[in-house]
Amino acid sequence: MISGMSFLLGFSQAFFIYVMSTYLKLASGLENVGFFYFFSYFFVFIIFLNLHKIIKKIGEADIFHLALTVKIISVCFLSVSNPSFWGAFWVIVYMISSNVEWVSMDIILESYSSDHMSGRIRGKYLTIMNAGILLGPFLSTFILDKYDFNGLFLVLLFLNVAISAIAITGIKKIGEKQKKSKYRFGKNISVFSVAQKFLTRKNVRKVYYISFMLEFFYALTIIFVPLHLYNIGLTLKEIGFIFTIMLIPFVLVQYPIGFWADKKLGEKEMLIAGIFIMAFSGLGIFFFSSQEVFLWVIILFLGRLGAAMVEILRDSYFYKRIDSCDVDMINFFRTSKSLAYIVSSGIAGFTLMIFPLKSVFILLGIVSFSALWSAFRLKDNKCEKELVAGEKVAGLSYDRY
Question: Please, what is the Cα angle at 337 between 271 and 330, to 5 degrees?
Fold first, then answer.
């Protein structure tokens, strides 16, 4: 059930996300569309800080259904309206509800995870989800080229209705089980207490910054790479092809890397390698303005290879250091995405008032390299090979701090 839902969620996400900035540019007439992302993720950030309180009241399954319903309503309005500021409003609603939907699914998945298999479970989930994401950019740009945004939103509506039909039974049963379990924490926790609890755990704090860097990378590439490629003269079909190829690493490497992190290596060394690859790729975008499709395939493929490594290793590391009852910690950890979008779109917005669009990719490289400081100072998790070799560990209750 979760595997099928993760595939459809990934497909529906990628179906719109890589042409979202193009829609916002068309709807507003502005080259600098970062404002819309800033506004959206500011609300997402506030929601995530308080989401654990809402989960305590109604449960993560009900939040998932509510977010999905709001998303379907927003797509309904988008499918019958032309690009305009009113359409941009519904795109903002779509972004907010999508993020709440994803975090709800993330919390549900954690209830099925165990520490020593975290890399494999997360790797399998992300691989299936990214198989769906892989199909999105090519099909969305093809439909956009043939049928415009109205046709794209009709397909998106169908996808989300299909997800809702599956979720009505599957997620409901999951929610009923979790309401009876320890997954439901007992007392009210303030946002300040959650932040204090989070920040006092030094390794969790370091992996949070790595997560922030990863989401910062995603934010700038998702918002500005499509616009950059379009501005230098590539067609929508070419951009769709490039994006499809660049996403292949997410399908090929995440499960094997999660497996190696659990069994052989731990996360630290591979995290460092992934960050290096991301940083050099991000800087590479700045230095090239060629219309050669193959060149852009290589640059963006390498960037996503590094990102795929960091994404699975970030999740594997973090979820080995918390338990499924730490709903407040999971919610706070996922604020890294909204915070990254707020910071990246805000800084990029001011940067673009002075410098050309491609200048944001220098910022991308700098922030990517900065995460190496946290990665080198992480205390690595013990892999199964090290535990079997004689590390003093009772079960897997190693130092989580």
Answer: 80
Q: CA-to-CA distance for 235 and 270, rounded, in angstroms?
A: 35
pTM of the predicted model as reported, rounded to 2 decimal places: 0.81
Alpha carbon 344 to chain centroid, angstroms: 15
Residue 384 sits at the vertex; the CA angle it makes with 380 and 387, to the nearest 5 degrees, is: 80
Which domains does the chain carry?
2-388 (1.20.1250.20)
Mean local confidence (pLDDT), 129-155: 87
Give Cα 101 to chain centroid, integer Å. 12
Are 5 and 163 contacting, i.e. CB atoms less than 8 angstroms apart?
yes
d(CA 333, CA 103): 10
Residue type at position 391: E
Residue 305 has pLDDT above 90, yes or no: yes
The sign of the dihedral angle between the CA atoms of 308, 113, 66, 190 is negative
Instruction: Please say whether the beta carbons of 178 and 184 come within 8 A.
Output: yes
The H-or-E segment that residue 298 falls in is helix 293-320
**CA pair distance 328, 276, nearest whole angstrom:** 31
Find out whether 55 and 107 touch, Cβ atoms under 8 Å: yes
Chain CA centroid to CA 10, Å:
10
pLDDT digits (tens, 9 = 90+) for 314-326: 988 888 887 766 7
The two three-digit tokens of residue 12, written as one number: 């529906």
